[in-house]
Amino acid sequence: NALQVMAARGLLAELAFAIPAIIRTNPRLLGYYRLLLGFSQKAFYHQSTGLSPFRRAEDSGVLTTEADSNLRELCVALNRSCAFLVLGIADTLSKMHLDDFTLLTFGPQLRGSRNVSLGAAAVHLVFEAIREIVGDRAATIEDRLISFQDATGRRLEVRFGSDPDIEVVSVNQDTGDQYPLLAIEVKGGTDRSNAHNRLGEAEKSHLKAKSERGFTDLWTVVNVRGLSEPVRRRASPTTTAFFDLVDIAERQGAAYQAFRDRLLQRLRLPA
Questions:
Q1: Nearest to 146 by CA among 126, 162, 130
Q2: Which of 101, 147, 209, 221 might form a disulfide with 140, Cβ 3.0–4.6 angstroms?
Q3: From residue 207, how far is each of 23, 41, 96, 116, 237 by CA, in Å?
Q4: What is the pTM of this model?
Q5: d(CA 219, CA 196)
Q6: Tell me: the pLDDT tens digits for 29-78?
């Protein structure tokens, strides 16, 4: 029935229905059918769906042996859903509508990618500020690591990671044992309406860093000005200190000086 609707509208079947031969010719087209059905990459390729082997098809244009062996079953599943879609909008179906469906999904995907980029840039900015504050006292400076000795001669490492975003640990030079000193979560989003959610995300990360890693000093850097201390505290009660990203980026003013002084104190370095 759905194929008849497509034919009546003068539309090629493959505009809505996945065909194994076409996917094998251009594996990246799997992304088109995913978007058409409104699935994000995160939801579609989640481990629970069993579709993770197909991720490389969309991302790299590579159809692995495992994915190819299950391609027919995937197309059948996709096409069952697409049939519901086609029949559901049969009266107004057009190529433009099919294009619009893919864009409806692609828009949030782009925003999600942008938010990830903003977050990574914000973490990098804070990491660079810490690198400047440590300055020539650092013994090792790499893209994701700063290593130095504190005033007592103990080795400290500042690491640019993902969970937490930035961590400071003391390393026993004889045994290699690590002792957590400071965890920093950085939220680069500028949308004030979503600030509470971002602080909630920082809270979750801090709770994990505290319970699983033993961190007790937990800082949060946000990119939304004007949030009062009570608002921040309610959203992330585990945070021990809040800072604004703009203050750190500007490298001047009382707020930046407070960040610098507190960091030097935590790193046990002279001002």
A1: 130
A2: 147
A3: 44, 28, 47, 21, 10
A4: 0.58
A5: 16
A6: 999 998 888 888 888 888 888 899 999 998 889 999 999 999 999 999 99
